[in-house]
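In this supplementary section we document a worked example of the pipeline. Step one takes a protein sequence of length 381 as its only input; no multiple sequence alignment statistics are reported here. Step two produces a three-dimensional model, which step three serialises into structure tokens for compact storage. The input and output of this example are shown verbatim.
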Amino acid sequence: MRTNIQEAEEFRDYIAKWVDNRLIPVAEEIDVAGEFPRELAKELGELGYIGTMYPEGAGGIGLENPNLCFSILNEEIARGSLGFAAWICMQGSTATHTIYEWGNDHLKKEYMEPALKGEKICAFAITEPNAGSDAASLRTKATKVDGGWVINGSKVFTSNGTVADFITIVASTDLSLGAKGLELFVVDTDFDGFSVSQKLDKMSVRSSDTAALSFDDMFVPDNHMLSSETGNGFRNAYRSLTVDRIFTAALAVGNARAAYDAAKQYAQEREQFGRQIGSFQAIEFRLVDMYANLQTAAMHTYHAAQMADRGEDITTEAAMAKLVASEKGREVCHDAVTIYGGWGLMNEYPVQRYLRDSYFPMVGGGTPEIMRKIIGRKAAH
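The serialised model returned by step three reads:
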């Protein structure tokens, strides 16, 4: 019988080969173009990887330790392209997990199952132009009408926003209740009243589509609501976003791995003063610090993932994994550019992309300040 570690190692071997053969060769191309590679998404779905988090009965692949393996999946894909990995992180976790946990049979068959096959692209929208970390300030409004709800409002920074076939959104059924009035709705992007108001142009994760969305008297049927009791929607969303922080940490680890590997190889090839630059103590020590930071980030990430698989409370550990991995990952990428010297600023080499992309895990899923606030509830009190 395989142990959890053996299952995880085998899983890593399989996805690593796909990344090496299919993703890395086109990573620079999709970043420069700023386009989401839908054909690769479909391919991952056909291979079953999008369903890493789910049991076979729900269209997944039924792994014993799904959170650990999904973290590995995000790390390996981010090693090839953090932009593309941002899509798998959203598609295979929050955007589908909310339907898996709280959706009815119609939503699972119509949206979740095709999403796990890569046939439909999905997104999760919570952030608004004037409300990010402060969920109580959300102003997208859902008004009850016969047979459903009419939604008005806007969202911003929505990953997969312009390419999504459906989006789970957070909207308030009663603005006076603040966060307690928030609920979840599955919105088909073909619904009248839905529109993409802007495709956002980012310096980071450029192949990850990001958009601003508008809802103008958009009717949503009753069976597209994910919770039925006032106040459950936000708690459900928060639960999904908590575990998602571990996967965001894994994105940072994968991107940092790519930067470290590139810098190490460059240090072995580049010569100055008749010697490989990696033989100079200053460069050697910098590589040592990069390696130590990378290992620290990975240990926090996989510790939290294994806790999640054991069903333990991960609120603090998930925030800590995201905080440590994102900050240490950015340091690794910065040091990689430094080792390259002037060439590190050139688009000819990928380290400039790794550094640009390293800012995404710091912001996505909550800022470092919010992570410190969460950790402080336990560490400082």
